[in-house]
């Protein structure tokens, strides 16, 4: 068994970008793991560590060397390997040169196809210590860093200046230079509590040494848990609950190495501001965790985390309270000033804000959204006045001071200002809900007006940007069109809205006045939305072949699409499903292969074989019984009824030659297959089922 040691790599830097820390350590682990695999170095568990000043990996049970490799190269056949005088032939000489070997090093390999000259060589595996520096350097070079920097007089580049490198294999330092720094066994403790070097005796001692001596919690995950627990304890001391959002928790964990909670207080008068304003101010500007009571109402406290265990914590607390005060005062000023002008009065000013060069201003977009919203409301038999009013006011809050300071409050502030202006509550809610869902898996609009406005706004954006030719490619999607398309899919399906998607896309495109090919863009946009539908449904557990089976019938309603999928998923569990899927595939292939052959509606009197007459009778019976089921969209029952065709279909293919030499009979039989295919295609093309 190969001898193994633990490997420890640590890169010490200036403070790393907090929002990139998780990405950097994940990519580093992946890169090193991939490099070890390519080098043939198996290993045990990898533990990743990340703090504001370090990225580190502890790799258990790494072999000290690659496994030896026995290589075998087969040369020319023995009967062609030598000249008449016994000297090596040209083929043999060339083989010897390619192997850098002599004739005496070759062996004869006997196989059932004859005898061959063969060269075998045992290649000794390289020592791990010679391979690891390149593996680590390659992983660092491939980290997803948008812009690298240089420091000092060297040429090394990284996201931040590098100050130390540790590279241990067991108890030994690996001789290497990484990013211009010679590797050693020294790490650094906390910048203030233990700035001196700490020597690590062996990789397994790394985490404990940093914790006990260096005042560093090296594990990102453990530091998050610690911060969360300390925040909750601090909030409980004032009978509150810490408002902890995952993104902020990640960011705080990436800002501190030794988290120390600080609970501050602010003037209760600011609680008259909308809660979202206070939360955003504290979270975005200060990285504070707000505190709520048991009912979710804000309390006049916040919790922040210091990266130092101060001898004078009151001074730290007072400093944070002093810093947040003007932030809250600014928010209060914006709130007061914004309400001096009604949203309606801001509508005209949207003419001065360009949405997109070819698509006009935000005012133009607002009018298009209002028209499209009216169309959708009428299709759903909903009241249109609220939709149009909400659409007209939907973008006006973008001109307020508050949204200018906190863009993420768009829509939310629109709701507050609309209510302050005396607008209907449903209109106000819709202004906020137009942006839903905001993230993958986020909530969709809860009100009918909000759902319609969200659809109209997203359809206008999608149709407009697509019509200008700015189709998302790769990772580039500046208008968040993928999110908009997924939002349309989710709202239609989850809210059960019976809307014809192609017709809506056509209506949205018709509102744009610049020159573009309507038919081409319609096709592109339909495919784009259906691709989002595919991803959404596959995430819900739909199988790929089931999706393709339904997609082949091109349902116009996404709600109908989902009903068909459920029916197909149940159908495939039936004992008849496999045989019928195969038969449908055969039918489709025959019809495609003979698409230029004329066919006729089948008549029992024109058929000759018992099997085909029986199949026609069964098909006509199924056709009559299917009609009401299709109208009711009871696709599950419809497919169960069609499952009864298995036996007559199987018998038909066993007993009947479709492509008869008799032209009249051939037309009848192709017509019969067309009838069978058409019955299934009312629901799905089950020939796709695997």
Automatic annotation (TrEMBL):
**What is this protein called in UniProt?**
Glycine--tRNA ligase beta subunit
* Entries under SUPFAM superfamilies matching the protein: HD-domain/PDEase-like
**The entry's keywords:** Aminoacyl-tRNA synthetase, ATP-binding, Cytoplasm, Ligase, Nucleotide-binding, Protein biosynthesis
* Catalysed reaction, written as an equation: tRNA(Gly) + glycine + ATP = glycyl-tRNA(Gly) + AMP + diphosphate
| A Pfam cross-reference name | DALR_1
**PANTHER family assigned to the protein according to its UniProt record, in alphabetical order:** GLYCINE--TRNA LIGASE, CHLOROPLASTIC_MITOCHONDRIAL 2, GLYCYL-TRNA SYNTHETASE
In this protein, which residues make up the domain named DALR anticodon binding?
586-689
What molecular function terms (GO) are annotated for this protein? arginine-tRNA ligase activity; ATP binding; glycine-tRNA ligase activity
Location within or outside the cell: Cytoplasm
**Cross-referenced SMART domains:** DALR_1
Record gene name = glyS
Q: Extract one GO BP annotation from the record.
A: arginyl-tRNA aminoacylation
């Amino acid at each position: 068994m190969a001898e193994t040691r633990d490997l420890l790599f640590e890169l010490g830097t200036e403070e790393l970008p907090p929002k990139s820390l998780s990405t950097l350590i994940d990519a580093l682990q992946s890169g090193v793991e991939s490099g070890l695999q390519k080098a043939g170095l198996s290993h045990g568990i990898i533990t990743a560590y990340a703090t504001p000043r370090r990225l580190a990996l502890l790799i258990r049970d790494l072999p000290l060397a690659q496994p030896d490799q026995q290589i075998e190269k087969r040369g020319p056949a023995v009967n062609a390997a030598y000249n008449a005088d016994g000297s090596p032939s040209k083929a043999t000489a060339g083989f010897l040169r390619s192997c850098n070997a002599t004739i005496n090093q070759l062996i004869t390999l006997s196989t059932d196809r004859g005898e061959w000259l063969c060269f075998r060589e045992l290649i000794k595996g390289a020592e791990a210590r010679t391979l690891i520096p390149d593996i680590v350097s390659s992983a660092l070079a491939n980290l997803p860093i948008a812009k690298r920097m240089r420091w000092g007089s060297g040429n090394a580049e990284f996201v931040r200046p590098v100050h130390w490198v540790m590279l241990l294999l067991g108890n030994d330092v690996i001789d290497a230079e990484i990013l211009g720094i010679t590797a050693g066994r020294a790490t650094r403790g906390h910048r203030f509590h233990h700035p001196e070097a700490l020597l690590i005796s062996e990789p397994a001692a790394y985490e404990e040494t940093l914790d006990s001596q260096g005042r560093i919690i090296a594990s990102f995950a453990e530091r998050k848990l610690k911060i969360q627990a300390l925040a909750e304890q601090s909030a409980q001391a004032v009978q509150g609950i810490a408002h902890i959002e995952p993104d902020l928790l990640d960011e705080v964990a990436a800002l501190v190495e030794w988290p120390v909670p600080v609970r501050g207080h602010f003037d209760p008068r600011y609680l008259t501001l909308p809660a979202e304003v206070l939360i955003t101010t504290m979270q975005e500007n200060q990285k504070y965790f707000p505190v709520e009571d048991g009912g979710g109402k804000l309390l006049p406290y916040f919790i922040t985390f210091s990266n130092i265990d101060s001898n004078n914590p009151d001074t730290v607390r007072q400093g944070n309270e002093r810093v947040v005060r003007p932030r809250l005062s600014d928010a209060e000023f914006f709130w007061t000033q914004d309400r001096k002008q009604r949203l309606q009065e801001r509508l005209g000013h949207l003419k001065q804000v360009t949405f997109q060069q070819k698509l006009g201003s935000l005012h133009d977009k607002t009018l298009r959204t209002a028209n499209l919203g009216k169309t959708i409301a009428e299709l759903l038999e909903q009241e249109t006045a609220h939709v149009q009013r909400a659409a007209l006011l939907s973008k006006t809050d973008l001109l307020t001071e508050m949204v200018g300071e906190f863009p993420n409050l768009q829509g939310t502030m629109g709701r507050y200002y609309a209510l302050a202006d005396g607008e209907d509550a449903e209109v106000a809610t819709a202004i906020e809900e137009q942006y839903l869902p905001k993230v993958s898996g986020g909530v969709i609009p809860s009100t009918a007006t909000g759902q319609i406005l969200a659809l109209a706004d997203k359809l206008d954006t999608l149709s407009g940007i697509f019509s200008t030719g700015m189709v998302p490619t790769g990772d580039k999607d500046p208008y968040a069109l993928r999110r908009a398309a997924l939002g349309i899919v989710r709202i239609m399906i989850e809210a059960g809205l019976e809307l014809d998607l192609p017709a809506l896309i056509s209506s949205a495109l018709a509102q744009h006045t610049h020159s573009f090919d309507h038919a081409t863009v319609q096709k592109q946009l339909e495919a784009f939305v259906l691709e989002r539908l595919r991803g959404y449904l596959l995430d819900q557990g739909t199988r790929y072949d089931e999706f393709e089976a339904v997609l082949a019938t091109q349902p116009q309603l996404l709600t109908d699409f989902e009903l068909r999928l459920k029916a197909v998923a149940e159908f495939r569990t039936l004992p008849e499903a496999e045989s019928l899927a195969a038969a449908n595939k055969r039918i489709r292939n025959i019809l495609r292969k003979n698409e230029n052959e004329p066919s006729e509606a089948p008549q029992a009197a024109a058929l000759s074989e018992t099997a085909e007459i029986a199949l026609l009778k069964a098909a006509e019976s199924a056709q009559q019984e299917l009609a009401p089921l299709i109208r009711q969209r009871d696709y599950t029952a419809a497919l169960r009824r069609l499952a009864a065709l298995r036996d007559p279909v199987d018998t038909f293919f066993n007993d009947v030659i479709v492509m008869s030499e008799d032209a009249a009979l051939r037309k009848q039989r192709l017509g019969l297959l067309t009838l069978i295919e058409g019955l299934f295609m009312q629901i799905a093309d089950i020939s796709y089922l695997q």
